[in-house]
What does this fold into?
Amino acid sequence: MRALVVIAAVAACARPHAPACSGTLPLGDRIAAPLAERSHEPAIIDSIAIAGAPAVAALARRVVESRPGEVVSDAPIADDIRRLWSLGLFADIRVEARETGAASYLAHERLPRVAVVFAVTLRPLVDRVQIEGDGARDPELRRMRWLAGTPFEPPRLARMAADLELAFVRDGHLDAKVAVRRARAPGVALCVIAEPGPRVTVGRVTFPGRHVVSRAALLAALDGQHVNHPGEPYDADALALDEPQMIAPYYERGRIDATIGSPRLSRHGHHLDVAIPIDEGPEYRLGRIRVDGGHPPPPQLVPGAVFARSRLFAAIAALEAELGPGAEVTPVTATDRAAHRIDVRLEIAWRPPWRALHWLPWP
Amino acid sequence: MARAALVALAVTGCLHAAPPGAVCTQLTDRCVGHAIDQVMMTAYWNEYDDRALAAYVAGVGQRLLRAAGRTDPWRFRVLDVADANGQANLDTTVYVTRGALARLRSEAELAGLLGHEIGHVLAGHGHEAIAEGQRQAPRSDGDRVLRAERDDEIQADELAVLLSSRAGYEPRAVETMLRALAAGDPRSEPDPDDPHPGWVERLARVRAFAARLPHGELGEQRYLAAIAGLVVGDDPRELAVVGSAVVLARAGLAFDLPRGAPTEPSSEGLMVGLGDGAAVIRPISSRFARYLAPKRTADVWQWVARGPHGAALVVVTSKDPARAAALLQRATRAPRAAELAALHPVRVDLTAPRPLWPD
It folds into this structure.
């Protein structure tokens, strides 16, 4: 007998321990019920009440926009249900229209008066929260632990889970999954299952179509952020913001039509190769150079030379310095796309030497 | 967004340079929170000079923390700021302004305010800001971020009710705390850029939750005794115009103004018209003054005027800033006894009825 007890105990220990979150249910949430079945005869609203939550009835009443004296209509009532729903307090909302026995006349038609009652059920409180998965110890999960004892609000829980999942993804855990489910137990017991999965980082970054600008120069345009470099997470938003920096070297080489295409991603295990296609476009050269007022063209701009944005800005700065304080030089360009030529005219305007402050009356 | 920028700055500071006596050298909530606290207390805030009140507020905070199962030491700062606000750092530091304290009337309401901020820290709401600061990458999903911040505020309100109740306070006081802070705010719908829910939703949530919890103590008499004499509104001893002088009594500085010079308060300080230009005078701490160097350009001069107990940042914009600066520097002196005697801060009136939202 004793041997049987020992064998049974050993067998129990050897059985894999079932996780607490097994046997869970989706969160579920009752969608607001439509207007209760009633006669489709027109009726006048006699009164409006919130029933089922006396503590918050007065506050909830403030968001209901239907008014006594109005004709009962499904669309405004549905809007009121949505407003009550948006308070986040109620697990269930039903609407009843009860005839009062009184009547009113509208355009010579006798209409019964009804009491409209929004019957609400408050959300229950969360009894306990169990967090499982490889991401259970992540600091971001703290907010889930503190759900215990607070109202059970499935839409907000679903958002929190989605946000946590997104946080993992932004950190490179592209396969992350975070789910909140309800355990099969009395009361409200939540199971949070956080599986970040492996961290996927950028492997190789290539620029198909690149010829006139070096790979190093284009990679340098991605500098300054801790994403999108080999070994770091991939971030599409940051890449989109880097586009002007990637285009800038092309503007120095006459390639004013250059475009950066949408990146193509290919995953190899825990690495993501990023291919950023580039269409470099044709090379543009300077055509006619004119300066207002008959001034000679600045030496930085030579007809026939490859267009370079920095040389244009240098020419503007040099001309403004030569003309003196108050001079403002603005470039006006005309582009011949067939001939790949850019004509430049430098406009000169004069600003007053001092702009007075206007925010105080002068003594 | 300003908060995100500040976190990014603090994250960078933690990553690249551990200051002497740093709390830690790792990129943790505590490190970043400490850096933020140092920056804010140096450049922007002063603590309200009432040690007994500070100790009282800390005592209420510690009671809430014990109810949350936390035994580590936290810091509670009462800021010398007229606006009603509370704020939590990423670290274990909670700030509450004297403006907020002046609107409350019980210890339970104070517990509600502190509980909300403690809730933000316990739930790690600022932690993602650290990751974002380190990543330094932009977000294109602004609406989602705002929705997530709004969910954080809802959770912080819930934790205020929960912790207050667990600590033995009346949980329904969280609602009156919110209504006191909301008084004078006509909005009932959420501001599109404000992470806090609209007042109707916020109060309804708090009221519904608190109604399910047992009653607790209010602690009215203890609270009223603690805030007796509390300064409300702008403190004229910080900066005021007395006669034809700008007086910074706390710093121990005064500036004689040109006859008839107009003055206008602004968020940057006091603006003074100087004929062909203007000056802005702003009181700063001696500690912050150490980080500011004089600046001179063709149009703008900036310098720090030092007093025995504080300093003032002076910025002059003029066609001839050298002349305007010399004028002001010659006009700098210590405040006179008569000027100091004219500066009377307004104290909280505990007999007047208190406005509560909705008005």
Notes: Chain A touches chain B through 47 residues (CB under 8 Å). The two ends of chain A are 108 Å apart (CA to CA).
